[in-house]
Amino acid sequence: MTMVSVVMPIYNGEKYLPQAIESILAQTYTGFELIIVSEHGTNQASQDIIAKYAKDDSRIVVVENESKLGIAASLNRGLRAAKGEYIARMDGDDISLPQRLEKQVEFMDANQNVAISCTRVSYIGENGRKLYYKDNLSEDPNQIKADLLFFCFIHHPSVMFRKSAIFEHDLLYDESYAAAEDHELWCRASRIVRIAAIPEVLLEYRWSRKSSYHTGGTVLENHSLMILRRSLNDLCIPINEDDLRYLQRTTCRESILSHKSVEKNLNSYYNIISASNQALMIYDAKCLENTLNRRMYWKRHRMRRMAAVIVKSAAKAVSSESLFYAAIYLELNGFSAALKRIAF
């Protein structure tokens, strides 16, 4: 049986930690080690939970940071400690479905040209309640690569690496990207190795108000800008800071009344990106077109997009968790497809 190393960085999070650990211990695929990287300063409650499970199951390996390293450095410690041929990611607040490891190992074994695989996820809230099913992740590796220019549809804790590819191509996490270490790695890796998706929900992803999406703030925004600038540099597109911020900013932040100028300006940028890619062939042309069209909400669905902005604003005011996240999904995907998947 192929050995799998599951790497789970922990910093507190005792509320959901037992569920996360138990979801790995309950896997139908049993040939794994669970490497828990405990951040320096983790509270006693979390340490007690880790110690309890480690005592009862010899497959659990605890790595304790002697100083506070942060998420990227902690992950790198876990990758270096891994003994498995494959390395799966897991977070301390999510839930891996029972067949996750089994199906990812089967996929990786059957696709030797794939270095990184990911899966679809279903979303749960802080109380464990289902929020919605997000289906933005493409099954086409070329589309995944193109989407990474603007989007990070790969859910970090759903990923499985081929260990040999990580160290052969130096695909460790860049520790200078503290708030976007996953997106940075996927973008860098997609230039070198193949990233593919399993079109099946194998993880329940907890989207809480403590996630980096909500707490990353300026750091997350700046790191996203750095990632986008590097991608544009690869396309030989020079860009000043103001234009970079404009291009990075999704249209959901624009005023409804300014949609015409937004459409004109973004079209101009996208034409430059398409022309540069035509010369350099970094992305599949059709996939890049799909990415740019998805980005251009105003171009094809102005009324839908305006309505989604209004719905999201209302949802924020109401402060209902399910309504708020459902509204984000409406915003990204439009009403017709999204309404079929929303669970309040």
Q: What's the alpha carbon Rg, rounded to whole Å?
A: 20 Å
Task: Work out the count of structural domains.
Answer: 3
Based on Cα principal axes, name the global outline: globular
Mean pLDDT rating:
85
Please report the distance between the alpha carbons of the first and last residues: 41 Å
CATH architecture of the largest domain: Alpha-Beta Complex
Strand content: 15-25%
Number of helices: 16
What series of H and E elements makes up the topology?
Answer: EHEHEHEEHEEHEHHEHHHHHHHHH
CATH evolutionary superfamily of the largest domain: Spore Coat Polysaccharide Biosynthesis Protein SpsA, Chain A
Helix content: 40-55%
- Main sheet overview: 9 strands, mixed
CATH class of the largest domain, anyone? Alpha Beta
Class derived from helix and strand content: alpha/beta
Question: Could you say what the CATH topology of the largest domain is called?
Answer: Spore Coat Polysaccharide Biosynthesis Protein SpsA, Chain A
Describe the overall structure.
With 344 residues, this protein is α/β, with parallel strands linked by helices. The protein has three domains: 4-205, Spore Coat Polysaccharide Biosynthesis Protein SpsA, Chain A; 235-300, no CATH class; 303-339. It has 16 helices and nine strands. It has helices at residues 17-25, 44-56, 71-81, 100-110, 141-147, 163-168, 181-190, 212-215, 217-234, 241-248, 259-280, 285-295, 297-300, 302-318, 321-333, 335-339; strands spanning 4-10, 32-38, 60-64, 86-89, 95-96, 114-124, 130-134, 160-162, 194-206. Strands 1, 2, 3, 4, 5, 6, 7, 8 and 9 form a nine-stranded mixed beta sheet that branches. α1 links the parallel β1 and β2 (32-38). α11 (259-280) packs antiparallel against α12. The radius of gyration is 20 Å and the shape is globular. The relative contact order is 0.11. Residues 251-257 have low confidence and may be disordered.
